Each structure stands twice: as structure tokens, then as C-alpha cells.
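Give me C-alpha cells for this 301-residue protein.
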Amino acid sequence: MDLRILQTFVVAAKFENFRQTAEALFIAQPTVTQHIRLLEKELGIELFDRVGKFVKLTPAGKRFLPHATALLAGWQAGMEDLLAWQQGYSENLHIAVSPVIARSSLPGLIRHYTKRYPEVDISIRIADSLEIGRLVQSGQVDLGLSRMVPGEFQLDAHLIQTDPVVFAVPLNGGDIEAPLPDWEQELTGNLLLTHNHPGYWDDLLLALRQRGLSFRTMTVTHVDITKRFIEEGLGVSFLPRSAIGRELFENRFIELETPGLVLPQAASYLVVSKTGCSQTAKQMIEILASLYPPLPLIRSM
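Here you go.
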């Protein structure tokens, strides 16, 4: 079977419009129609119902779609593997990484790994920490680097490092030599941007409320957006110091001490399957252990 015909079918199923399918594939609309007719003839069943300018998958089309998608994905995977082999790669390592780790410690880690194992083709998938356990457990990646202990079974979580959480406020063009503002006044006078990092926000908010402080909150679920909002003067937040190192160095943020309030520690975790790891994953674990000894086991499920 011509894989171009399968691709036409999959794209047509997405748009349910042959004109849009033609535009997406950079082919003529009659070619789309011809591809679908050829596929229907080969399968001996109609895949689309024609309704005016639009088309809709028949029950047979809906049943065949996941198989067509899998065939195309398998072909693409095979092509990528062959290309990697031609380029000198003999093995693969798939990693899921939280955005915070990807922007802080991951570059150094990858530098160590590629220097020692240049023959390994590394694929990095940026994912929220909540997703990383699922990706490791399902086998979509070899290991995960997460900012939280996963909830999935059959996974081990090892502590890599801890990271102090600090109270970050914008400099606002002020004199860096001037006395620092009072942290409670900054908190009560601005929006507190919350839940941008997993693990510590619920306990931290409870501790702030127990001090009798009155403040407004706004949930912003990504660290990068939180930092942008702080720069724009839209609020303040408690963030891992590693996530705002550049902003502190460039005097765009101020880190305020919080007398009387004990701030939490954020942590980074290595997430691996209990059922075994690939050889490339074991190599990465060895490098992590050399950089961040002793990788204590935090939770085994």
C-alpha cells in the first residue's frame, strides 16, 4: 500500500474536508479524492460519507483510523531509526523532563552524557511533572526528571537535589542600593502568583494564612509565565531559586528574606521503572549518581 494514500486518509479524517486536506498536504484536491477512492477500493468498504462540501468518517473509517495512524507512526519511527544509524548513533535514550529542570541542570547533564556516550541518540520530551510518571510507566520514555514524586505504581523515585524556594519580587527600576522592601507589605500589596510549581504551594499558603496575612492570589501554572508576570509588575511569587537565577543576576528580580516564615525546599527527582531500565538509562543514572550522590530512594511503589 502507498503510504501517501494512508497519510491522505489520516489528514482527511482530521479535517473532514478534502479542500483543507489538499492544502495541508500541498496536493491538488482531485488527488485527495483519488487517494481516498483507491484506499476504499483496496479495503472494499467506504471510509467517508460525503455531505456536500464536507466528509465524515463512516463507522468503518473510524475503526480503520487508529490502524492507519499506527502504520504511519511505525514507518516514521523506522525512518528516524535508520537516519540515526546512518549518522553514527547506535542506541537511543528517551527522557521526559520538567521545564524547570530543562532550563537549569539539564544542559550540564546532557553535556556530561554526550561526551561519554557520543553514539547515543538522545530524545528529550519536555513535560509537566504530573505527566512524567505516566510517560515512564507506559514505556514512552526511559526515565524522567521530575519536580515531584510520581503517583503511579511500579516506579521508583530517587532524590537528585534540593532547591531553596525564595520570595521573588520585581526590582521595578529602583535603586539596588536602597533598603529592601518589607516582604509582608510586598505580599499583601500585590497579587500572589501561585501553583506554578508542584509540591509546596498548599502547605505554603496555609502557613501564610496562619500568620493572619490578607492577600489575593492568582493561579499561574507555569514558572516561565509567572516570571514574565513578575517582570511586568503583575504580581509576586515564591519560586525555586534555580528558576530565577538569571533574573537575580541581571537585577530584574529581588529575593526578599521572610523573617518568621520558614520557606520550603523544592526538589528534583529521578523517576525510573521498577521493572528494569535500558542500558542507556543505566548510563544516565550512573552519571547522575556521580554528579548528585547518593541518589537516595524516596519512594518505591
